[in-house]
Amino acid sequence: xxxxxxxxxxxxxxxxxxxxxxxxxxxxxxxxxxxxxxxxxxxxxxxxxxxxxxxxxxxxxxxxxxxxxxxxxxxxxxxxxxxxxxxxxxxxxxxxxxxxxxxxxxxxxxxxxxxxxxxxxxxxxxxxxxxxxxxxxxxxxxxxxxxxxxxxxxxxxxxxxxxxxxxxxxxxxxxxxxxxxxxxxxxxxxxxxxxxxxxxxxxxxxxxxxxxxxxxxxxxxxxxxxxxxxxxxxxxxxxxxx
Length: 242
Known about the structure:
single chain, alpha/beta, 5-stranded parallel β-sheet, 3-stranded parallel β-sheet
């Protein structure tokens, strides 16, 4: 299984989660919400083969942590994975819309020309995120937990980007419609743990099996075929990473 978006550092015992991923062979990309969080966790995951840490600047935190940008740039060479970054134009994010946008542009400018894989937050800001990715010639990006307009999915696909889906999406009507619209060759899986509850507990990377089970029914396929499709998609998106 593959978890392209998991906040390992937000669990009560991050190393326990990382060890479980290693034991089960789950390729897991751990998001961070600030560069300083990346600095704290980076050294603890160096020995793991299946787990990697991403360098992030969450859009809702960026406006209050402008001093973190120098840390983002100084740690950029340590990882091929970037996240969680993006924009949030929801009711919660609107007051900081302009600052967020300036921060995101600054991050994308630092990434331009570098072979990194981005995991994107785009709540209520899907079109601006897409346009800014194109403007900065970003090649490898995943729209994490997409919740935007269905027609825009086609434009995101045309631009060459991917989507990661989770257990919350397979339980909601809108999430199911979004999954149905995403081409098989552009779909990846995520847990977004521990921020989603499934079965009465915080999800972990191993719960991606429920997403795969859903796709088995959705695509009228087998578990092995679903795993192979997602693995091939992941191999394709990381093939150009530095």
